[in-house]
Amino acid sequence: xxxxxxxxxxxxxxxxxxxxxxxxxxxxxxxxxxxxxxxxxxxxxxxxxxxxxxxxxxxxxxxxxxxxxxxxxxxxxxxxxxxxxxxxxxxxxxxxxxxxxxxxxxxxxxxxxxxxxxxxxxxxxxxxxxxxxxxxxxxxxxxxxxxxxxxxxxxxxxxxxxxxxxxxxxxxxxxxxxxxxxxxxxxxxxxxxxxxxxxxxxxxxxxxxxxxxxxxxxxxxxxxxxxxxxxxxxxxxxxxxxxxxxxxxxxxxxxxxxxxxxxxxxxxxxxxxxxxxxxxxxxxxxxxxxxxxxxxxxxxxxxxxxxxxxxxxxxxxxxxxxxxxxxxxxxxxxxxxxxxxxxxxxxxxxxxxxxxxxxxxxxxxxxxxxxxxxxxxxxxxxxxxxxxxxxxxxxxxxxxxxxxxxxxxxxxxxxxxxxxxxxxxxxxxxxxxxxxxxxxxxxxxxxxxxxxxxxxxxxxxxxxxxxxxxxxxxxxxxxxxxxxxxxxxxxxxxxxxxxxxxxxxxxxxxxxxxxxxxxxxxxxxxxxxxxxxxxxxxxxxxxxxxxxxxxxxxxxxxxxxxxxxxxxxxxxxxxxxxxxxxxxxxxxxxxxxxxxxxxxxxxxxxxxxxxxxxxxxxxxxxxxxxxxxxxxxxxxxxxxxxxxxxxxxxxxxxxxxxxxxxxxxxxxxxxxxxxxxxxxxxxxxxxxxxxxxxxxxxxxxxxxxxxxx
Amino acid sequence: xxxxxxxxxxxxxxxxxxxxxxxxxxxxxxxxxxxxxxxxxxxxxxxxxxxxxxxxxxxxxxxxxxxxxxxxxxxxxxxxxxxxxxxxxxxxxxxxxxxxxxxxxxxxxxxxxxxxxxxxxxxxxxxxxxxxxxxxxxxxxxxxxxxxxxxxxxxxxxxxxxxxxxxxxxxxxxxxxxxxxxxxxxxxxxxxxx
Lengths: 709, 194
Known about the structure:
Oligomer: heterodimer
Shape of chain B: globular
Distance between the termini of chain B: 73 Å
Number of strands of chain A: 42
Strand content of chain B: 15-25%
Largest interface: A-B, 87 and 66 residues
Strand content of chain A: over 45%
Helix content of chain B: 25-40%
Largest sheet of chain A: 22 strands, antiparallel, barrel
Strand order of the largest sheet of chain B: 4-5-3-6-7-8-9-11
Order of helices and strands of chain B: HEHEEHEEEHEEEHEHE
């Protein structure tokens, strides 16, 4: 939620010189009948499928700018001005490692999914494990779900507290509806609460007024996917604007090392709406929601007699049905330029039903936030929230994962306050704040932060911060029992490793020290450096228990039980650099580099041998260069090259890959041709020995048509 | 078109997609034809104002003594306005000259500026900027809360999300600039009127 704590961030961009920001569509005067017809066409397009709809358009942008540029003084005096949030901050004035992706960046990246968009952020690790699973993490800990990275969309958490991470497959909104993505690396617990340990990603969708008119997007690729989306935005009088969208995507399976298709294809249909109402000069209301249905291929594994005989867990295809729905309402009252409050409520429900497990996850969340400027020096934000989460895990097959208990409810309450103090106006600023969060399973957590920003002049800024953050143990870590592996033992008896949940698991802690420097010598060049030293304690470990013989399922086998513990600790150092250069008005270059050095240790007495390796499996070096070039006003060319270092513990080699995009705008249409992973036929990005499908990502070339009606 | 492996559930899911859309269609409220929304980003509107001011102020020929023949708008403490201006100024001419936008800070000389916009700049720096601008041909525009005789030639004021402006005619004329009567008539307040 960009408004949480009243802080939202805007890009430091000279790039808006290149391309104007998006604004609402030009006049859209069509009869209701015509609209109905349009929608009928959209429906049939979606039904005939393979066509997607999404769509924004560069030309609208130009025309709107032109409109303002063409206005006379008299007209200008009449325009109502909207400035982005009151305490929206420039990136160069932020005492945190922040990076903002604009809608233009998203479009020009050629990405078709959120994780692919996030690949462009320095310091983030994005690895595609299989067709439907991405690993996204910041500053290390690239485990399957990215359990130390909190992700929010319009104030609704996408981080699944039960499995501690994000299911990126169901987070595939219409990319055209996103206004910007704010990525903050480093702890954000003081504002956003638990699990914002190594970073926070805020996805902010466009207001309905910025998506007026209709849009159709269709894309089809050689190897990867086809998708289609439609959007329609309208308004009721002057005060209410809305949009409706629908999107359907199919992702074809990825392959194994030999090019054979893996059982990991999936498809997803979704639709939703957003309505914004300006009730009066002070109050505004937003209502939004999504509905999604999909089917995803996958595998499951179980311990049965065959597994014991063959000394390997039995693997079988286990497609899942995916369902999700959410509804969010937010009321904002603006008392003055320096004071406002907001109240938000949402309900979110997702279910996954496979052959072995029915899981149902439901969240109700209420948040209140108040912001006020006291005098000229103190900018205070405070608020509180309450969340109820219920997870049901109904096991359908024996020998696979089981849950004890299978009903899992958590209550969570929090309060936070943050003061931004101008010690010397426009020169030195101190931000102190904390969040206190309590829950019914791991007690209360205090997550304070102190940040200092020094801007000796308009070109330079330095910042430093010390913060504490925690990750709360997930329901899964506390309640699940899972067979990890089976293998032949010494005396011919099959050994089975079984990992048990630990109801007494405690939160993981981080104390982070950060330092950053930004310089923008002129409007053509900018440089941003962030460094950190992180100290972790109570990290999750895997402790061996005493082995025992088990007779069911027969024949007799030796179970080596393990249980989650809190016995790892350690530190990481790192640096992230992002630098931009605009050699000409039409050409922009962005180069990024990130370095990470992590070392973890097990406490004396711990028997952990697995997690200590898994958790350190993050590339040490990553680098990228992105070139955006406007050949003409209508033709854009983008090329990016990225290097990802090898994953030592996973035996995954490093790689260099190339993406390229060429787009051409004609009137209200945009045609683009995108090449992804062009250097190799296929590439393995992630290979954790965790029993999941690990697929090779293929070279893909796709074409896209965007049509703004 | 892409190659897709047929899943047995595909038909069912298309059906679902249809339902989603149908639900949306049914819930579609009676929309009215949209009128142009009279609201816009503040920075863009400010940029448009600046360009307009340039049309209604007359500079002496000596103000364009340099070889480049450019009309320079200098912007201090308002990068977003400078960015918006950069976009709006493409292809525009002021006093018959192509417009160049220069973001500046207080270390740079102002003598090339034909217009100086002072945004969010701390008091001391702002004073020195205005003082330095005195010896130049710069038409000074500032975001003013308290428009005073020592301030800028033109003050932009945001009142209830609408921008208006005030003019100090005397200051402008001391610098050799002629403010047109149209600009004066649209100003909320005119000081130092001749």
